[in-house]
Amino acid sequence: MTLAELWVQQLLNAVSIGSMYALLAIGLAMVFGILRLINFAHGDLLMVGAYVLIYAVAAGIPFWVAFLLSVAAAALLGVLMERLAYRPVRGQHEVVLLLTSFGVTMLLENSAILAFSPRTRPFPLPEALSGVYHVGHVVMSGIDLAALASALVLLVGLNLVVTRTKLGVSMRAAAEDLTAAHLVGIHLDRVVLAAFAIGSALAGVAGLLWAAKSGRVEPLMGFTPVLKAFVATVIGGLGSIGGAVLGGYLLGLAEVALQAVLPPGLTGYRDGFVFILLILVLLVRPHGLLGKAEGDRV
Amino acid sequence: MTAELVLEDVHVDYGGVAALKGVSLSVREGELVCLLGANGAGKSTTLRTISGLVRPRRGEVRFAGERLQALSPYQIVARGIVHCPEGRHIFGGLTVQENLMLGAVQRRDAAGVRRDLDWVLALFPDLAQRLKQRGATLSGGQQQMLAIARALMARPRILLLDEPSLGLAPVVVQTIFRVIRDLHRQGTTILLVEQNARQALAIADRGYVLESGRIVSSGTRAELEADVQIEKAYLGA
Fold first, then answer.
1. What pLDDT sits at residue A296?
2. Which of A35, A149, A203, B152 could lock A45 by a disulfide, CB 3.0 to 4.6 Å apart?
3. Pairing state between β B158-162 and B81-84
4. In terms of CA atoms, which chain A residue is nearest residue B76?
5. How far apart are CA A196 and CA A289, in angstroms?
6. Could you tell me if residue A251 is left (phi over 0), alpha (psi between -120 and 50 degrees) or otherwise beta?
7. Looking at this predicted complex, what is its ipTM?
8. Do B82 and A179 touch (CB under 8 A)?
């Protein structure tokens, strides 16, 4: 393997994992931007999505249809969360919102343990994605390709939505200044619901990629990814959609780079080093790379 | 039913502290009415109550005969009541154009929106050259113009303006007041809150004076200008 190939390989790995973090982080950032809510139950969307896929495939539904069903289920669950859990506490102190999201997480995870049993299940990877492709010495799995392709399509689509549609511009406006959003006549409930639906659907896609990559589905599988996505949004600047994407890819890069440069004895502590990087970023830019000081938000 | 805005015995509390203690006022269609008073008298609270940001504890807010106090802010905007708040509250991270389009967020008549965009850009030519600029990059005066222009994009039946001249250079204040006067002449109904009492009264049909959450005086421009007490308190005689 030449040095150039090594670089390409590592970059591909980083972008593949970064795509998942980015897709997951967007939903967190959208919701936080408008409601100041850190939705830790965001990770459970991906768990529920993965189970829906498993059951759908087991029921004989073709994988791609099951995939769409699973993403739709994640979006629906996100919308239900908003309606049933978060709307009643909207506007309350941030700690109340955070605790509510912990409550939702506990409810969902324990319900999943009851309904699906705590045992780990294999992810039914379709033939089309289980291949491995070689270009020179660079190895690429079908899942990596799927992660890249879906992230590309979804990010371009999302960018169109938030810059070209009334709904998307309203979403950014509400994230920036809630009072002004009310006064220009934005129907906030609708915007919040859309933010949950879009963010949750993206989380559904990220969840399937995550499950496909790890090969396992279990009730607590959402914890690590949501933590990583949270780190990504903090790096990028809480509440900024662009920041979430940037943070996701930077986190992917950082993980792959650390994996490559850390001495073998320390690679087990990779995530610890990632958090050290996070702290460094926050020391230099307390509001994240693309974030704004809280004082700017009236 | 004419589009008259009526407040009747409106009481508003902020965390147990009374901000409005029985405010009654009215703005008839086509009028420019100013609401004068010192800092903390309740002027902004009055506007925030009309636009649904705060709810009255008692009393009634009606527009064109319909009670507003049970409606959400976006529903009140849908009735044609548009509040241009103190401190401008433009969207700094969004472009001037996006800000203006959000002013028309509820409108479905694309052709009318385009016409109104041309109209507000003619009112404020400064904005026309800066459509792609982010709101935060504008000067204070331009931001105030953008805030008013954005409110006009909703095609208001009544415009609530809160301290539009606050913190602006005298020459910009002149521009803002000229635009307000022109809007009034063209038939827009306006409720204007100002600390700049003399200038506000000069373009108003009628006025009210608020003091500690109560209306203490009201009348036509001539009556208020003749009132010695007001002269002393607000016009800096």
1. 44
2. A203
3. parallel
4. A185
5. 24
6. alpha
7. 0.92
8. no
Choose among B52, B78, B87: nearest Cβ to A298: B87
Q: Which two tokens stand for residue B8?
A: 């009747």
Residues A186-228 pLDDT 10s: 999 999 999 999 999 999 999 999 999 999 999 999 999 999 9
Q: Which residues fall within 8 angstroms of residue B17, CB to CB, at 6 or more apart?
A: none
Give the global pTM: 0.91
Q: If 0-12 CB within 10 Å is exposed, 13-18 middle and 19+ buried, where does residue A280 land?
A: exposed
Residues linked to residue B209 through DSSP beta bridges, in sequence order: B36, B217
Report the distance separating Cα A21 and Cα A245, nearest Å.
8
SS3 for A135-195 is ECCEEEEHHHHHHHHHHHHHHHHHHHHHHHCHHHHHHHHHHHCHHHHHHHCCCHHHHHHHH
B232 lies within 8 A of chain A by CB: no
Distances (CA, A) of A187 to A241, B74, B106, B157: 20, 6, 9, 19
Give residue for tokens 């009201």: B218
Task: Say how many CB pairs under 8 Å bridge A and B.
Answer: 67
Residue B234, pLDDT > 80, answer no
